[in-house]
Amino acid sequence: MTMTRVAVLGASGLAGSLVMQGLPSRGAVPVGISRRHGVHVEDLEALRRALEGVDVVVDCLNHQTISARTAVGFFGSAAANVVAALEGTQTRVVCLSIVNATVPGVNRWLGYYRGKAAQESVYRASGLPLSILRTTQWFELAAQLLTQTRIAGTAFVPGLLSRPLAVQEAAEQLVEQALTLQPVGVTEVCGPELVDLARLAREINEQDHLARRVVRIPLGRTPLGSGALITPSPTVITGTTAQRWLAQRGAGPSTSAAL
Ligand SMILES: NC(=O)c1ccc[n+]([C@@H]2O[C@H](COP(=O)([O-])OP(=O)(O)OC[C@H]3O[C@@H](n4cnc5c(N)ncnc54)[C@H](OP(=O)(O)O)[C@@H]3O)[C@@H](O)[C@H]2O)c1
Q1: Which ligand 1 atom minimizes the distance to the CA of 97?
Q2: Integer CA distances (angstroms), 79 to 75, 95, 171, in order
Q3: Atom nearest to 62 CA in ligand 1
Q4: Going by DSSP bridges, is the β-strand pair 161-162/185-190 parallel, antiparallel, or unpaired?
Q5: Does any ligand 1 atom lie closer than 6 A to the CB of residue 16?
Q6: How far is residue 134's CA from residue 149's CA, in Å, rounded to a whole number?
């Protein structure tokens, strides 16, 4: 019996590394792709070689930016290169995306989401068998915002209203989709409860002491603070609540860092 070979783009990243870990126990062979694995997605020849003989590609690439232009450039050209590298094959693609990132009323506020919309659109136009897995924000995003928004010891975290899930839960869904024989169109995954990510960041800060103070930037008058990041009809609702996620990470090794 031949084993399914699954290429994971962004294999060294948060989601990609968990997808890599989840594949072997399901009888699949993971093929890691990232610059750390020696492949730059802009290098078409290297990408072609890396994707040779794979059955499925799971795209977990990322480029952190708030610039729409940079995001559209990165996600659009990376997806176009994947499509070019797969030319002449019917390799299935699973693209990790974000709930409502393609909605203009949402992505006009977040340039990064316009990049995700460009990525989805390139894959859709490719004619390759495609599954798009959109999730809401991850709990881990609140931790990232806490670190990234610090100025002189104070973190300024936007009060994004979401139904977050754990990245581990997103990775499990990706593994599931990678090993499903039929592409499933669009799947939308969200967590079990409404959470204000700034309030979650405050609770994370109580564990990690990363900032002296966490200032919540209210977004209530914008779509981002009033429900536009949430899908009205999720395909999958995951089980981990914010309190359980906090308890699990609090029980792990200390991640505290100096101010
Ligand atoms: N955070 C959330 O709440 C959330 C929610 C839903 C969906 N998503 C989506 O999930 C995806 C993955 O996010 P993440 O946080 O797991 O990403 P991440 O940790 O930032 O990892 C990004 C990955 O992309 C690779 N990469 C970046 N540029 C590359 C290049 N030029 N060539 C080859 N590899 C490159 C990186 O590896 P090297 O640096 O080694 O190249 C790394 O493995 C993103 O597309 C994001 O939009 C995120």
Answers
A1: 7
A2: 6, 9, 20
A3: 22
A4: unpaired
A5: yes
A6: 25
Cβ neighbour number for residue 133 with a 10 Å cutoff: 23
Q: What is the C-alpha to C-alpha distance for residues 214 and 205, in angstroms, rounded to an integer?
A: 8
**For residue 194, is it within any domain?**
yes
pLDDT score, position 184: 84
Q: Give residue 111's identity as a one-letter amino acid code.
A: G
Q: Give the dihedral sign, CA 247/249/255/259.
A: negative
Give Cα 124 distance to the centre of its chain: 18
Q: Residue 69 is encoded by which pair of tokens? A: 């232009």
Helices first, then strands: H and E counts in the chain: 9, 12
Quote the number of domains for the chain: 1
pLDDT in tens, 157-195: 999 999 999 999 999 999 999 999 888 899 999 999 999
Enter the pTM of the model: 0.96
Provide the CATH number for the domain around residue 190: 3.40.50.720
- Give me ligand 1 centre to Cα 187, in Å: 19
